[in-house]
Amino acid sequence: MSTDLQVLHVHSSAGLYGAEYMLLGLVPALRRLGIESRLLCLDNPHLGSAPLFERAVALGVPAQLIPCRGRFDMATVKALRAAVAAAPSIVHVHDYKSALHAWLARGRGRTPVVTTLHGRTATSLMLKVYESIETRLMRRFARVCIVAEGMRRPLIDAGIRAERISLIENGIDTDRFGPAAVAWSKASLDLPAEAQVFGGVMRLSVEKNPLGLLDAFALVAAKLPRAFLVIAGDGPQRAALLERAAQLGLGARVRLTGAREDIEGLYALLDVFVLPSLTEGLPLALLEAMASARPIVATAVGQVPAVLAGLDAELVLPGDSAALAGAMLAAIMEFVRMTITPEGLKTESDDPRDRQ
C-alpha cells in the first residue's frame, strides 16, 4: 500500500519519555505500511540539546527540528506551515504546545489536525491554563485519540463530540522486548549474585511516584535481606529519591541507573517489575515488562487494569505504599514458587540471566 499523503507528527519534548519512544517507533512503522510519516520536533529553549530530534537522527527516523523560542513563537507557526504546504498532510499533534502552533499553521486550508492525548500531569496553574486551551482546540480537531478509556468522559464533558474520540492503545516493538532479551549483569550494577531484584523504568517525577515505590521497598527490604531496587530513568525527583533512600538506610540496596537506551536488558534482569504511578494513560514500561514476561505489580490507574485483566498480576490502589509492598512480597513469593524444581529451589547459577 502506498499513498501521497504524509503524516506530520508534531511534538514539543522535555526529554525522552514514554510519548517520545512511542513516536520513535510509530513513524517507521507507518512508513513500513507505505504511509509517509515524519517527526517535527519543536525545539525546547530550556534544554541544552534536542534529545528527541537527536535520537530520531541516530535511529534513522525522518525528523526535522523546528525552531521555538518559548511557549508561543510565530516563527514556529511559519516553519510548520511550510512543512504542511510541502505535500498533502495530516498533522498529528502530541502536546498542548504543538496543538496551538499546528492549529495556527493550518491557516485557512483544509489540513486535518488530529491529536493523541497521552495523559495529563499539570502541576501548576499555568500548565492547567495551557491544557484548558488545548481542550478548546480539540473541539475543532478531526480526531482525538486517547490511550485510556478513562479519558473519554472528561473530554465529552468538555464539549468534544463523542464520535470524534477514538481509543487507540499504545504499542511497543516486540522484536526488541521479549523473554529472550539479554539481561544486564548483576555485577555491572554491583549487585550480589543472589540478589532478588525489584524495579522498573520511569520518569522520576511526582505522578510516577518513585518516592512511594521507595517507601514500599523499605517494607519489603525489612523482610527480604536479599532484595534490591533498580530504577532506570531520570527526572526532577532524583535528588529527593537519593535523600529518602539515605534516610531509610537503603542507599546500599537502591540503584538509580539514569536514562538508558538498552532498557530491554533491565526487564530481563528483574525478578518483579513494579509500576507505582499515581496517574497514567497507558505506560509503555508496563507493555515492555509484559512482553518481557516479567511478574508484574502495578497500581490500578488509567488503562492498566484493562490491559492486565485476566492476567496473573498484582494490582493495588495508587498511593498505598503498604499495599504496594504486600503485592511486591506476594509476587516474589510466587516467582520463587515457580522456580522450584524436582531437585529443590533453583539457585542463581541455574538462572540463564546470570550467565549473560
Q: What would a concise description of this structure say?
A:
The protein is of the alpha/beta class and 356 residues long. Helix content is 36%, strand content 19%.
Question: What does this protein look like?
Answer:
With 356 residues, this protein is of the alpha/beta class. It has two domains: 162 residues, Rossmann fold, CATH 3.40.50; 169 residues, 3-Layer(aba) Sandwich (Rossmann fold). Helix content is 36%, strand content 19%. Strands 3-2-1-4-5-6-7 form a seven-stranded parallel sheet, sandwiched between helices. It is elongated. The C terminus is likely disordered.
Observed structural traits:
356 residues, alpha/beta, Rossmann fold, 2 domains, seven-stranded parallel β-sheet, six-stranded parallel β-sheet, 12 helices, elongated
How many domains? The number is: 2
The CATH homologous superfamily of the largest domain is named Glycogen Phosphorylase B
If you compute it from the alpha carbons, what radius of gyration comes out, rounded to the nearest whole angstrom? 22 Å
- Widest β-sheet, arrangement of strands: 3-2-1-4-5-6-7
Low-confidence stretches: 342-356
CATH architecture of the largest domain: 3-Layer(aba) Sandwich
How large is the count of helical segments?
12
